């Protein structure tokens, strides 16, 4: 017991060590184009403050772990937590534009979203959609409602409920898996086309002539008028903000609080072309969707990728001169000569050494020579967790898992209060096939949370940690626990199988946009920037992580493209982005591939990589 107490005390000392260390932070504040003078910079929780000069420059002393707040009238305030490596913060401020829906106009019956939220429990004319509250009293067009008290619990599933309670709504399929032909629609199509949909010769007619796929055997709901049968589009479902294409036959009827039918273009415009067949909005009593289905936000929003995405050749033209020259070398000796030519000028820059290591290892397979260069310059990053992670990423991409593991141990020692440190080291041990040590890292993180030494995060890093640990137990339980104990080990069912992408970035100040383009050329976008997602970035710093996962199921095979628009990291240094692609995730044939990208080119979208998988992307 005494030994455990000493270990915990030692850990607490590591976590708290340096939290009061004063840091000198300097930089320039701009509006994205020109320097801003008179910007107030406050150390939150203290009376200390300063302001930018005529050139937008500032310098301030701030304790590590505190937060700097940048404020200026008419601009959105920026808050940045100071970390162990923070020295330079060049901040871009953006105009503070009020949301129109939050403006209250005297004499108008238009209400803000917060007012509608407070009225929702008692106002039966309100429905909560994925895009906010909709008021039937002020919405354009007629909205048909069904409330909790009016719902007949005898209905087996949502198909029966819609079929029985809403006249004019055409329902295809049954509650037995939502399969079976709806004879009413089939007969109407027979009358319109003059042909029998059961005839073998009409196989090609359904998808082309009617807009329906296959043999009308899928559960569908049609809420448009009769004229739309010439081009029938089925309705989509919005369930507590989760949008799905297929009827939720899994939904417990007794859990439904409110249903609304949106069947005019004015009320479905937010849903894009996916809502052309109307939208059925369902609010549940529990407020929690029960479906594991994945929503392809790209296809839903009907976004199409722009044509200004730069290719690898165009990105390469923006490389520094030393990198272009060394990659132009035609022999190993020429490459070494070119390296020596630039070494004297750039040897003090850690990013130069990282570039050179990558070049000699991957271009010429000269691992020993590359490692010698790294060892000669190890003083540049040994105490810098951001640079240690960048080099560890490269080693992981190159399959040098032992070397990566050694670096990640140093990161944990420098950052024992970062959740990412434990996750990275646990996954590193998995790469080494050291299941005992991997299990120890997973359980150490959980133990520290249980003991109150680290805060639990159930949405961000916590959800990713849980998925990683469960996947580890699924694949390694026989190596971890022998005999009958392995069979008795509880492992939660995987809620996803398909292709999983995990992105990590070494610098917490990095801002970027990731674009995921599906096989149809449509895309969805993740905006990781203070201007668009300050709350998410603040949470990442609070819990100590820089990672996100993206899940793609295999419903529609094709080629996905991953593009990036790098916005910078508030300094002149590059950011290293690691992408780990897990194929057949959640199965015993699971395999992975690691890619590492050095991001330096700013405000110019370019392609990172492509992969051949399925569709339907979900952001976590």
Report on this structure.
This protein is α+β, with helices and mostly antiparallel strands. Helix content is 33%, strand content 23%. It contains 19 helices and 25 strands. Helix 10 (332-346) runs antiparallel to helix 11 and helix 15 packs antiparallel against helix 16. The longest helix has 20 residues, at 461-480. It starts with a helix and ends with a strand. Mean pLDDT is 81; it is low at 1-19, 99-108, 178-217, 225-231 and 288-293.
In round numbers, the mean pLDDT is 81
Number of DSSP helices? 19
- Structural class of the secondary elements? alpha+beta
Largest sheet, described in full? 5 strands, mixed
Q: What is the molecular shape?
A: globular
Task: Provide the fold topology.
Elements: H1 2-16, E1 22-30, E2 40-43, E3 49-51, E4 57-63, E5 67-71, E6 78-81, E7 91-92, H2 113-119, E8 126-129, E9 132-135, E10 144-147, H3 158-165, E11 170-172, H4 183-193, H5 205-210, E12 220-222, E13 236-239, E14 242-244, E15 256-262, H6 265-268, E16 279-284, H7 297-301, H8 312-316, H9 321-327, H10 332-346, H11 350-364, H12 367-376, H13 385-397, H14 401-414, H15 419-431, H16 435-450, H17 461-480, H18 484-487, E17 498-505, E18 511-517, E19 523-528, H19 530-543, E20 547-552, E21 558-568, E22 575-585, E23 591-599, E24 606-613, E25 617-619
Parallel strand pairs: 1-7, 13-16
Antiparallel strand pairs: 1-4, 2-3, 2-5, 5-6, 8-9, 10-15, 11-12, 13-14, 15-16, 17-20, 17-22, 18-19, 18-21, 20-25, 21-24, 22-23
Helix pairs in contact: 9-10, 10-11, 11-12, 13-14, 14-15, 15-16, 15-17, 16-17
